[in-house]
């Protein structure tokens, strides 16, 4: 006997405010192996209530609906009925739809051009503890992750015409390092450190190290320690 044959059908609730679409999805799922449709809802309020009544394995969730949209319904279902996973099935793949839905607790995200096999894979993926994402959604998540990491690692723009090295020296001053410690950290001479300090003081109007610390924090070059 194959693994698919041994696996119990996933109990699914379909949520979509458009009657024709909702009935069409229910009909499609009824033809697919490994899926048992146990209910359908026309909006988020009805979805939360229905999930509480029938305790499905998965809610297949549309996003843009009246009364209670899919994001809020997902948040409530995950909070009130954690045994039910949510897979979004929507027309929209834009960031304004995708990321709030995932943040609300959806484990899968498909667009409505997904075929039956993709839906089945997504449902069973989330039940296995994996993410049920279409290839296009996976690419968008990777792109967003790359964009976020790039923003994190990009150096802050140096203020007042400071060079990168002068900014680096200023940050080390703000961290409490002496000239000698800065020289060792940057593998330069103490005289070179003094030259950088004189230059950055002249450019910024700073008079002493205390002002340098205030300036660095004020410009966001360093952050106060947590707590």
Summarize this, please?
The chain has about 230 residues and is α/β, with parallel strands linked by helices.
Structure description:
The structure is a single chain. This protein is of the alpha/beta class and 227 residues long. It has helices at 3-6, 19-30, 44-54, 70-80, 95-104, 116-127, 135-153, 164-174, 179-186, 190-204, 209-218, and strands at residues 10-15, 35-41, 58-61, 85-90, 108-111, 132-133. The protein contains eleven helices and six strands. β1, α2 and β2 form a beta-alpha-beta unit. The termini are far apart.
Q: Total number of helical segments?
A: 11
Please identify the structural class as seen in this structure: alpha/beta
* Helix coverage percent: 40-55%
Main sheet: strands, sense, barrel:
6 strands, parallel
Distance between the termini: 58 Å
Name the beta content range: 5-15%
List the helices and strands in order: HEHEHEHEHEHEHHHHH
Lateral strand order in the biggest sheet: 2-1-3-4-5-6
Integer average pLDDT: 84
Q: How many beta strands in the DSSP annotation?
A: 6
Low-confidence parts: 1-5, 150-155
Query: What's the gyration radius in Å?
Result: 28 Å
- Report the principal-axis shape: rod-shaped
